[in-house]
Structures are given as C-alpha cells and as structure tokens.
Amino acid sequence: MARTEGHTPPHPGDDRSLEKPHPRWRSATVTPVVEGNEGSAPESDRTPHPLDTEQLTSARVYDYLLGGKDNYDVDRDMARQMLSSAPELKTLAWFTRSFMRKAVEMAADAGIRQFVDLGSGIPNSPNVHEIAQEIEPEARVVYVDYDRVVYTHCDALLAGQPGVAALLGDVRHPQEILDQLENHALINLDEPVAITMISVLHYVMDEEKPADIIAAFRDRMAPGSYMAITHGSSDSDPAILQVLTGTKDTSAQVAFRSTPQTEAFLAGFELLEPGVVPVQQWLRSDLPETRMVMLGGIGRKP
Ligand SMILES: C[S@@+](CC[C@H](N)C(=O)[O-])C[C@H]1O[C@@H](n2cnc3c(N)ncnc32)[C@H](O)[C@@H]1O
The pTM is what? Predict the structure, then answer.
C-alpha cells in the first residue's frame, strides 16, 4: 500500500477535516433491487475502516477487477464470486472506465476546465486528470473518496501532478464536500465544472436520499456544468444480484436501480444523447451486452 509521510488524512464529517492544511495543488421510493440487501446497517458501519483488512471495500474489489494489486483476500473472494456469475465483469469495468473517459473528454471539449471525481477509487490510468489535461493542460482535478485508503493512494500517487488535489469526503454529506472545495479554493463554483460519479451512487441507500445528493451538487454548479453518472442496473442478471447480497451491511452494499430511477437522478440537467443506457451504448454499437448492466448518463446544467 502506498503511504504518505507525516500526513494524517482528515475524517469526513469530523471538524478536524476543516482545520486540515490547505490541500496542496500539485505544483499546483425507490425499490431496493438486490433481493436480500433490503434495509441497511447504519452509515458508520457502511463506511470503510482503513485498518480493517477483513472487511471488503468497493474500492479494493473494483481495483481487483481492473487488474490492480491494492486488494485483500476478502475483496478478491467477493470479486471471484461475482466473476463466477458474470465472467465478463472485468470487461464491463473497463467499459465503465471508457464511459468515464468519454464523459471527461466531452466536458473538456466543451470548454470545462475544472473536474471533481466523486468516489474516485484507487487511481488507475487513465485517471480523470490525465484525460482532461490531454485536452487542456491547465485543467484542475479534485479526487474525492470517503475511503482513507483511496485518499492515501490519491494523495501519494498523484503527488507532483500539476493541478491535481485529493480530498477525503463522503458524498452522503454533499455540503461538506462543497464547502471544502470552496474553502480551499480548489474549484470555482461560479464557473462550469464537470462532476463524475462513476459507479458510486449504488452504494448510497434509499434512506440516504441519493437524488437529494445529486441535487445538492447540481444546485451549486454553474450553468454549463456537466454531471456524469454510472449506476448498477436492477435489470442485471438475477444470479449476479444474488452474489451481491453478500455485500450486505458492508461499505460495499449495493442498491441497484432501474433505468427510470437512475434517469431521475439527472433531473434538472439536459440529458445528453443517448440518455441513460448501458455504458456500452455510449461507446460503440458493436460492444457485447453484459450480465451485469451498468447504466451511464450525462447531464448538462442549462
Ligand atoms: C466501484 S468503485 C468506482 C471507482 C471509480 N469511480 C471508477 O469508476 O473507477 C466505488 C468508489 O466509490 C467510493 N464510494 C462509495 N461510497 C462513497 C461515499 N459515500 N462517498 C465517497 N466515496 C464513496 C468507494 O470508496 C470506491 O472508491
């Protein structure tokens, strides 16, 4: 695991997080659809604990699926169970990363110069800043995740990258993230911004009001801003949904939702074509369907 020296990451929701040093610019009702996953443990039980290697986390399971090495047995066990029901999951993970790439490119091509990647995950190239800065070298990118392990990786691995910063933040507390972005002058919310929430919202339970979370960000975004989301679909194969019940009461517990439910998250944005559809359809017409369906959608604030 990568480590940062002499740097204690703040805890989201902890007042100390607001006192932390200025993040350095580097040189610069909804239906619960996973049967058996209905209801959930309190938020604190579904927040990753950095020293608990017995508890799987979505970041590390995803890291394994993407071919990374920052994962433990418990993460690999879950990933392997998922792969036994849907062997093409690794491919889907890369389709989803390609959707993220497309969304960032669309926003950068439209002139967006600041990006916030919410639920950024363990860095995996190409990361948002690499994509955005290929189009606009001055683009600024803030990576936000509530998992201290992810935060530490982002902080350490992205060190030295111009215009890149990492924050510890929980999307279930959007106001705290917005305040940090503003207080530390990381993002000018008076200017258009692109926010990516790639495969994050399905970890937010119904009672945590995912639509309100998006609305909180939307209401602070300037006109012309972009919001890109992907979300696990309740139309996925029941076998894979069954495997995912094994995540219950962990931070990786999922609530997959239908297309209309996912589309509703982008209320108040102009929905860009082709709308909220499996991510493959955003990429090419000849890509195979997958048993786990990942919906992708991009909205532009009018
Ligand atoms: C499946 S991974 C996706 C990572 C990355 N977005 C990608 O597409 O490669 C989900 C990520 O969302 C983060 N996450 C889940 N719930 C979150 C929350 N409430 N606040 C912030 N991050 C969250 C996890 O820690 C994890 O890194």
Answer: 0.88
Q: Which of 292, 38, 25, 1 is nearest to 167 (CA)?
A: 25
pLDDT digits (tens, 9 = 90+) for 38-83: 666 767 667 887 767 778 899 999 999 999 999 999 999 999 998 9
Closest residue by Cα to atom 26, ligand 1, is: 59
Q: How far is the CA of 160 from the centre of ligand 1 (A)?
A: 23
Q: Is residue 234 in some structural domain?
A: yes
How are the residues of the chain apportioned to helix, strand and coil, as percentages rounded to the nearest 5? Answer: 40, 15, 50
How many domains does one find in the chain?
Answer: 1
Structural domain including 142 reads 58-301
Question: Do the domain assignments include residue 17?
Answer: no
Task: Let me know if residue 227 belongs to a domain.
Answer: yes
The domain that contains 166 carries what CATH number?
3.40.50.150
Atom of ligand 1 nearest to the CA of 124: 9
Q: Report how far residue 235's alpha carbon sits from residue 190's, in angstroms, rounded to the nearest whole number.
A: 38
Q: Which atom of ligand 1 is least distant from the CA of 66?
A: 9
Does 200 fall in a domain?
yes
Q: Is 213 in the pocket of ligand 1 (CB under 6 A)?
A: no
Q: What is the 3-state secondary structure (H, E, C) of 36-84?
A: CCCCCCCHHHHCCCCCCCCCCCHHHHHHHHCCCCCCCHHHHHHHHHHHH
